[in-house]
């Protein structure tokens, strides 16, 4: 009995001992990593990700965009074998940041608006870095080129869309639920619930970023060599990974790292993909395919639109204060206008 339990939990036990060793043998490295993680959270994640998480929850809870869903339903049904309410998930999954698409998918599935198979397939491709991170932080901050960031963002979006089209052939669930029923809460109730629900979500994202930042700093202090450290960091944490490899690699490789996401992002979205019943190995496979496909698309785009990258800025840290993007800004503004008109319309009806 004891041997069975030991074999089943051997990785957890090893992880506990390794963690204790690092905490006691490298306290300054752990402290430095946590400080770096907090900077990333305060200057990048909170300003750029939290508004999108609140906005995505509001879209689901208020159902304010249902007329747009129904207009685009034939397209989503034909391309992705998804129903009309999946439009918001696909769109926000492309521009909202890594965990937004999977969180919206989990909400739709819990509300019974999409089937289990639809939810699992959405989680396969609705995971993408937002323009604030890809274009501003990586493109401008690390590579010194907004054009490079734009090419990477387009490559990643096209890769996600292609993966979504391929996912329509997965499994044999032919049921496509309809969203004809109105699920929307009142605007104020939806807004209040969206803010409250996403406080815990954003804290969870920040906690994973801080934890992986401490781990990567400990790895750096081990002096395993630049190549080993770069490989570890690239697969563990996407922000530090991009910052580490920006000086010595090509744009398609950086795009592939972002497309894979890093295990920190995988941990951030794990609770949402687990809610849909999607096995992690399938999600992992999808991330690998997405990384490879986005790198190929980026390579082809660079053949058509060659760019010069300013190497003098490649060694800049990936943390940029209040990283923003024009598309993200206007998206938030438009959604606020829609919410205001929706509140006014419902008050008149009452």
Radius of gyration: 21 Å
Q: Per DSSP, what share of the residues sits in E-state strands of 2 or more residues?
A: under 5%
Fraction in helix: over 70%
Q: Could you describe the largest sheet, including whether it forms a barrel?
A: none
Mean of residue pLDDT values: 80
Question: What structural category arises from helix and sheet content?
Answer: mainly alpha
SS elements, strand count:
0
Query: Count the helices. How many?
Result: 16
**Residue windows where pLDDT falls under 50 for at least 5 positions:** 178-182, 311-350
Intertermini distance? 65 Å
Counted up, domains total 1
How would you characterize the overall build of this protein?
With 350 residues, the chain is mostly helical. It has one domain (43-197, 251-349). 77% of the residues lie in helices and 0% in strands. It has 16 helices and no strands. Helix 6 (98-110) packs antiparallel against helix 7 (116-125), helix 10 (187-221) runs antiparallel to helix 14 and helix 13 (251-260) packs antiparallel against helix 15 (280-304). The protein is globular, with a radius of gyration of 21 Å. The chain starts with a helix and ends with a helix. Residues 178-182 and 311-350 have low confidence and may be disordered.
Brief overview:
This protein is mainly alpha-helical and 350 residues long. It has 16 helices and no strands.
How do the strands and helices of this protein lay out in sequence?
Elements: H1 2-8, H2 10-25, H3 27-62, H4 66-80, H5 86-95, H6 98-110, H7 116-125, H8 131-142, H9 146-167, H10 187-221, H11 226-236, H12 238-245, H13 251-260, H14 262-275, H15 280-304, H16 326-349
Helix pairs in contact: 3-6, 3-10, 5-6, 6-7, 6-14, 7-9, 8-9, 9-13, 9-15, 10-11, 10-14, 11-12, 11-14, 12-13, 13-15
